[in-house]
Amino acid sequence: MRELSTERRALKDRAMKTTIIGHREVSQLLPMHECIKVMEETFRTLARGDALQPQRQVIWLPDKKGALGVMPSYLGTPRAIGSKIITVFPGNLNTHYESHQGAVLLFECDNGKLLALIDASSITAIRTAAVSAVATRMLARPDSTDLAVLGSGTQAAMHIEAMSVVRPIKRVTVWSRNADHAKRFAERESSRHGITVDPVASAQEAVVGSDIVCTTTGSTSPVLMGKWFQPGMHVNAVGASTPAFRELDSEAVARSKLFVDRRESTINEAEDFRAPRREGTIGDAHIRGELGELLLGEVEGRLDRSEITLFKSVGLAVEDLAAAHHIYKKAEASNSGTCLEFSAERENRVDVG
Question: Three-state DSSP class for 243?
Answer without folding.
Answer: coil
